[in-house]
């Protein structure tokens, strides 16, 4: 089974987004998330 380039790119972006969100959480950096688990107090 071959993976299409689009699917691979989409998966990579998803992984990157999760890493960025995790990094932001660790350093208390408020970033906009489409599916925020908790609201960011501004």
Helical stretch tally: 1
Beta-strand segment tally: 0
**Cα-based radius of gyration, to the nearest Å:** 13 Å
Strand content: under 5%
Name the shape in a single word: elongated
Structural category? mainly alpha
Largest sheet data:
none
> What's the helical proportion of residues?
40-55%
The SSE order reads: H
Query: Could you give the distance between the termini?
Result: 46 Å
Rounded mean pLDDT is 80
Low-confidence residue ranges: none
Account of the 3D structure:
With 42 residues, this protein is mostly helical. 52% of the residues lie in helices and 0% in strands. The model has no long low-confidence stretch (mean pLDDT 80).
Short description:
The chain is an all-alpha fold. The chain contains 1 helix and no strands. 52% of the residues lie in helices and 0% in strands.
How does the SSE layout of this entry go?
Elements: H1 5-26
Features:
single chain; 42 residues; mainly alpha; 1 helix; elongated
